[in-house]
Specification:
By secondary structure, this protein is mostly beta strands. 15% of the residues are buried. Strand 15 and strand 16 form a beta hairpin. Helix content is 9%, strand content 37%. The protein has 3 helices and 16 strands. The chain has a 7-stranded mixed sheet with strand order 1-2-4-6-8-10-12, with no helix packed on it. A 7-stranded mixed sheet has the order 3-5-7-9-11-13-14, with no helix packed on it. It has a two-stranded antiparallel sheet with strand order 15-16. It starts with a helix and ends in a 5-residue tail after the last strand.
């Protein structure tokens, strides 16, 4: 510290060796230099410094999450036949004339999406039906060649008047399936579903449907080196 005070006590001799700045380069005497100058907000880091601070990993930039289905702007209802595919979209409730009817042929597939509280009546024998992201929708069909595929559509109801080989339910919370006497051989596949009931016709014409619940709980265990799965039954 003593050496520092010795230098200060020397007075003008300390600054005698400093180089003087030309007046043309002094910003306080030249407004044009002040207008064109920019002061960096912080030290500039090189790519290697940034990489070293992050451990060699690129910073994660958060992506834009899609809006929930309930917050999206609803588009106008659509019912069109494009080639051999029926497109049913954006219906909220039934049309003024009642349930939504489709005249189907054996080569037609039907795609129903983003509908709510709508009843769709399929007349004739179609090829296949897919129902995606619908809420509280009902489907009444005559017969199908292949399958009805239902995805992410809670509170779904369906009545089959003729024959139906297959029903596939994926992430469906609450479903009522009414099968006719011609569809008692229907195969039903479920994945991540809850509250699915199958209603079977009574023995007589005047008898009501008999409701049967599909299992939701599966017990798995190892037996002789093989994984065995069984339905959990609740007694009482």
């Amino acid at each position: 510290m003593g050496a520092v005070f010795d230098e200060i006590s020397r007075g003008e001799s300390v600054t005698s060796k400093l180089k003087k700045v030309d007046p043309s380069s002094q910003t306080h005497k030249n407004p044009s230099l002040r207008a064109g100058s920019s002061v960096p907000s912080g030290p500039v880091r090189s790519d290697s410094q940034s990489s070293a601070r992050s451990g060699g990993r690129s910073p994660n930039i958060p992506g834009t999450k899609p809006k929930p289905e309930s917050m999206r702007t609803r588009k106008p209802p659509k019912k069109e036949l494009e080639g051999n595919k029926w497109l049913i979209e954006n219906y909220d409730g039934n049309p003024p004339e009642g349930m939504l009817e489709i005249e189907a042929h054996i080569s037609h597939s039907i795609l129903i999406s983003r509908c709510s509280k709508t009843t769709i009546r399929v007349l004739g024998k179609a090829n296949a039906i897919s129902l995606d992201n619908c809420t509280a929708c009902s489907l009444v069909i005559d017969s199908l060649v292949s399958a009805v595929d239902v995805i992410k559509s809670p509170r779904f109801e369906m009545q089959v008047l003729g024959t139906l080989p297959t029903v596939m339910l994926d992430q469906v919370d609450g479903a009522q399936l009414y099968l006719g006497k011609g569809s008692l051989r229907t195969e039903i596949f479920t994945s991540k579903c809850t509250g699915v009931n199958v209603n079977l016709p009574g023995k007589g014409e005047e008898e009501d449907y008999v409701e049967r619940a599909l299992p939701e709980q599966i017990k798995s265990f190892i037996r002789d080196g093989v994984v065995v799965s069984e339905i959990v039954e609740h007694a009482g």
